[in-house]
Write a structure and sequence with these properties.
With 124 residues, the protein is mainly β. The protein contains no helices and 11 strands.
């Protein structure tokens, strides 16, 4: 059974940093693209950053380029999202998702497996 467990969310001041972790189990890590998505009430879920550990391909939304970095630790079956220079508009619930049919360059919220989400709040 596939499990994705997010951690690392919290409250931070604008300009600060957080690192989100997504611990994956129940599937062959290398075969899947894993991504971070976010959603605020009333808005559609959007892709923030995605990665394929098999080929290293990645995607970043324009709004986070230069501030966020995605990485994977295959030995730990964990994907990280390092978020720097956080802005109030980054406040959202962040979800981790996985799908074996995509590569890291595809980061639309059509991934098959999803975690429960972790709240990130950036105060101004």
């Amino acid at each position: 059974e596939v499990h994705l467990v997010e951690s690392g969310g919290g409250l931070v001041q604008a300009g600060g940093s957080l690192r989100l972790s997504c611990a994956a189990s129940g599937f062959t890590f290398d075969d899947y693209a894993i991504g971070w998505f976010r959603q605020v009430p009333g808005k559609e879920r959007e892709g923030v950053s995605c990665i394929s550990s098999s080929d290293g391909s990645t995607y970043y939304a324009d709004s986070v380029k230069g501030r966020f970095t995605i990485s994977s630790d295959n030995a730990k079956n964990t994907v990280y999202l390092q978020m720097n220079s956080l802005k109030p508009e980054d406040s959202s619930v962040y979800y981790c998702a996985a799908d074996r049919n995509y590569r890291g360059t595809y980061c639309q919220p059509e991934y098959y497996y999803w975690g429960q989400g972790t709240q990130v709040t950036v105060s101004s």
